[in-house]
Write a structure and sequence with these properties.
The protein has helices at residues 3-20, 35-38; strands at 49-58, 66-77, 82-93, 98-114, 117-131, 143-144, 148-149, 162-175, 179-186, 210-217, 219-222, 231-242, 245-255, 259-268, 272-283, 286-295, 306-315. By secondary structure, the chain is mainly beta.
Length: 336
């Protein structure tokens, strides 16, 4: 199959995602199963073409809960000395059906520091469209004292039902076959996200920068020259900060021949929010995973769980010249 066929397949996958996902800064529990979404510097961290899709259904006990879809394709290019990627993100949230759709282009530059260590530095540009369903608003002139909401409002709400803006992110990644760590900064320009005060310079209307730091190691507890026979333990940590809010995910997963099993604890600036269980089935170039977040916070209903499914596939490109293929020791540290 030609490279153009892979691109077409990815675009079709993105278009299908748009139909099932119609805002805030969304997040994913399986952050390493959607590496480019976590840190754009993961773009091109494998010598193959990688396609990943994640679907998250958050706080399912709520009528108008949060739903997020992320689909990306990325590959390494020898001519560009780095990775090229394309990502779609769709998010729907809340009673007012606040939707955010973003299309992102990513480039990461790769430097081989030595025979066993690589560094990626990336920039990501996004076109973002946000919307809100004004028909769900309730204004005072719609209310009758006895009968409730029965009138049509005279408010002009069409003028702020959509918002378009550009957004940027950057990241760095240091990794080899045993460890991986990086930093990412999203919302670099802190764009104005207000539907009603688009021209305001007030800081309260801006989307705050989001800072992400992550680190993980790959520990072989059963060693073998044949990769499929190894058993590995992978502890990892992710820390995010946005304005006055922070979140820490800490945990690990066990990687056997075809099965991954993992668990994490999510701590926020307010409380110990949830614990997470994940299971994944994998083949050499394919991975499908499921995770569930069990809410621990007393501020949420105990049954208000969040579910997430991720799918990843890597395509080998046949007939590529050696100069377009990175050194074999550089192995994607997260496609497990």
């Amino acid at each position: 199959m030609k490279f153009s066929s892979y691109i077409l397949l990815a675009i079709c996958n993105i278009l299908l995602s748009i139909n099932i996902c119609s805002a805030q800064d969304p997040e994913l529990t399986q952050f390493y199963a959607a590496p480019v979404f976590t840190n754009p510097a993961f773009c091109g961290s494998t010598k193959q073409v990688r396609i990943t899709s994640s679907i998250r259904n958050q706080h399912t006990v709520l009528k108008d809960n949060y739903q997020t879809v992320v689909t990306s394709i990325d590959a390494y290019s020898g001519n560009m000395r780095g990775g090229l990627g394309l990502m779609f993100m769709g998010d729907r949230a809340g009673t007012a059906n606040v939707t955010t759709t973003a299309i992102s282009g990513i480039y990461s530059y790769n430097v081989d520091l030595n025979r066993n260590l690589a560094l990626n530095a990336a920039i990501q540009g996004s076109y973002v469209q946000s919307g809100i369903d004004g028909s769900r608003f309730l204004f005072p002139d719609m209310l009758d004292k006895r009968l409730g909401s029965i009138y049509q409002t005279k408010e002009q709400i069409q003028s702020f039902e959509q918002k378009n803006y550009l957004n940027f992110a950057t990241g760095i990644l240091l990794y080899n076959t045993k460890f991986y760590g990086g930093l990412a900064v999203h919302n670099l320009l802190q764009p104005n996200q207000s539907f009603v005060a688009s021209n305001s310079n007030k800081e309260e209307y801006n989307l705050p920068r989001r800072y992400t730091a992550h680190f993980g190691v790959n520990l072989d507890i059963v060693q073998s020259r044949i990769e499929s026979k190894r058993v590995s333990l992978l502890p990892n940590v992710l820390f995010m900060n946005q304005l006055n809010f922070y979140q820490l995910n800490i945990g690990m997963y066990l990687k056997d021949k075809n099965i991954n099993i993992g668990g994490w604890l999510r701590q926020t600036s307010r409380n110990t929010e949830s614990y997470i269980v994940m299971v994944a089935y994998r083949r050499p170039n394919f991975r499908i995973g499921y995770s569930i977040d069990f809410i621990l916070s007393t501020n949420d209903a105990p049954s208000s769980a969040s579910h997430e499914i991720t799918i990843g596939y890597e395509f080998k490109i046949k007939g590529r010249s050696r100069k377009f293929i990175r050194k074999s020791y550089i192995k994607d540290p997260v496609f497990n």
